[in-house]
Amino acid sequence: MSTDGGPEPEEGTEGAGERVLVTDDDPFIARLLEIELRAAGYDVRVASDGEMALGIAREWTPELVLADVMMPNMDGFELTRNLRQDSKTSTVSVIMLTARGLSADKLEGFSVGADDYIVKPFDTPELLARIRGVLRRSREMRAQSPLTGLPGNVRIENEIDLRVKAGGSFAILYADIDNFKSYNDHYGFMRGDQVIQWTARLIQDVTLQTAGTEAFVGHVGGDDFVVVCLAEEAEDLAKRIIERFDSEASEMYDAEDRERGSIEVPNRMGEVQTFPIVTVSIGIATTARRTFSHYAEAVAIASEMKSYTKGTQGSSWAVDRRTARTI
Q1: 179 pLDDT band (50/70/90 cuts)?
Q2: Which CATH number do you get for residue 53?
């Protein structure tokens, strides 16, 4: 659906209403891109500089930003850098447009997080093909975590939405690794990725053994995971995940740290801080005492309970037992 008075995309057109933000200080090029993209079925907004584009992106959250490199106030590099640093827009796809085809410019564009790079003047069919490719890759990344191979945010949302609409018994377990950042800082990102992959396999194994093949396991991103199962299975599943996690977590540490039961990590001030072996916190939202009208409501409650239980020491779980949301 168009949000700014433009024509509605016809059914079956390639864009299918995906949101594209065109950012170019040349009004002729911006208008040309807007016309071509609308004709291809995309929902389009236009910004004349990087600052305006950043404001629109934070409010509108497009799937893709077409960003001219050379713009007043904020150029395309700085715009991309700001998009990547904001959690609301960090996953937005970016294609940079430039009149210069210098390798240095391309390298800088990719280094700040651009997904593709097109030199002006461009061929419209090629531009549309590039847009399709970038958006397709983005959808695939959201559908499946490249690190763990587990379903990603799109499939998690679809799974929970189906359960909500079916109206049957289900629960959501939202699991988060405690003290993971300190582990990452101490051992590095490669070891950190190994912990995430190990956690993914552990949760999959325990879920299969406890709740069977009807349960669903997804990777939200980072060190966060979601399990969807029957309401009556949730608490036992949480306990078993914690038990297995705590019995194996120390194996992810070097022998000296494992024996000590902690690691020492300097903070930004250079002060050494001590962090214990990683643990796991699990928040549970369940239909045992309430119904959910929307998947976001169920996820929000599970996340809330996860945040609550993270305030306790060691691995723990908490289940929402309210009959209606009170906060």
Answers
A1: very high
A2: 3.40.50.2300
CATH of the domain at 282: 3.30.70.270
Report if residue 226 sits inside a domain: yes
Q: Report pLDDT for 15.
A: 62
Residue 69 located in a structural domain: yes
Residues with Cβ within 8 Å of 158's Cβ and at least 6 positions away in sequence, in order, are none
The partner residues of 44 in beta bridges, in order of sequence, read 20
Stated as kind and residue range, the H or E segment containing 55 is helix 50-60
Sign of CA dihedral 19, 24, 27, 32: negative
> Tokens 């049957």 belong to which residue?
168
Percent of the chain with pLDDT over 70: 92
Residue 10 has pLDDT above 70, yes or no: no
Under 8 Å between Cβ of 164 and 295? yes
Distances from the Cα of 143 to the Cαs of 177, 251, 258, in angstroms? 22, 31, 36
pLDDT tens per residue across span 122-173: 888 999 999 999 998 887 767 778 888 899 888 899 899 999 999 899 999 9
Q: Is there a single domain that holds both residue 25 and residue 78?
A: yes
Query: What is the separation, in whole angstroms, between the first and last Cα of the chain?
Result: 33
pLDDT tens for residues 246-300? 999 999 999 999 999 999 998 778 889 999 999 999 999 999 988 998 989 999 9
pTM for the model: 0.61
In a domain, 5, yes or no: no
Beta strands 272-276 and 262-266 are antiparallel
Q: Are 215 and 297 within one domain?
A: yes
CB 65 within 8 A of CB 83: yes
Give the C-alpha separation, 326 to 296, whole Å. Answer: 16
Task: For residue 319, give the nearest of 281, 280, 291 by alpha carbon.
Answer: 281
User: Which residues sit opposite 20 in a β-bridge?
Assistant: 44, 64
56, 45 contact by CB (below 8 A): yes
Structural contact between residues 109 and 76, judged by C-beta atoms closer than 8 angstroms: yes
